[in-house]
Amino acid sequence: LDSGDLEEALSLLEDLALRLTADAEVHEALGIVSLRLRDLDRAIVELRRAISLEPSNSTTRYNLACALALAGQIEPALTALESAVVAGYYDAQHTRQDRDLESLRGLEQFEVLLERMSRR
């Protein structure tokens, strides 16, 4: 993943996922690589799997919000972002600038969540 070879990272992670089926980090990494490759359906599935294995991970919830927003699933994206905030995600500056969340900008619920993050 760090080398930038997303296809190779995907292949390695798929092999790991076959052996470590209940490893939240592997599924989160698969979700992130899929997100970067813009395989949004797969990113959503993998990130949801990671959340089911490690519900308290606020960053995974944030990444799910990004994937859903890119897929045009606005209400689910807002719900995922809210769950990230509830779980402890608070980087309002990053959220405000994240291009993956462009479809949420200007929505009242998005602005409220940004305000909640800013207060932490």
How do you describe this structure in short?
70% of the residues lie in helices and 0% in strands. With 120 residues, it is mainly alpha-helical. Helix 1 (6-19) runs antiparallel to helix 2 and helix 2 (24-36) packs parallel to helix 4 (58-70).
Give start-end ranges of low-pLDDT stretches: none
CA distance, first residue to last residue? 31 Å
Arithmetic mean of pLDDT:
91
Order of helices and strands: HHHHHHH
Query: Helix share of residues?
Result: over 70%
Shape by Cα distribution: globular
Strand content: under 5%
Question: How many β strands by DSSP?
Answer: 0
Specify Rg, calculated over alpha carbons.
14 Å
Q: Largest sheet, described in full?
A: none
The class by helix and strand makeup works out as mainly alpha
Q: What is the overall number of helices?
A: 7
SSE layout and pairing:
Elements: H1 6-19, H2 24-36, H3 40-53, H4 58-70, H5 74-86, H6 92-97, H7 108-118
Structural notes for this entry:
The mean pLDDT is 91. With 120 residues, this protein is mainly alpha-helical. It is globular and about 40 Å long. Helix content is 70%, strand content 0%. It contains seven helices and no strands. The longest helix has 14 residues, at 6-19. Helix 2 runs antiparallel to helix 3 (40-53), helix 3 (40-53) runs antiparallel to helix 4 and helix 5 (74-86) packs parallel to helix 7. The chain starts with 5 loop residues before the first helix and ends with a helix.
Key attributes of the depicted protein:
120 residues; mainly alpha; 7 helices; 70% helix; globular
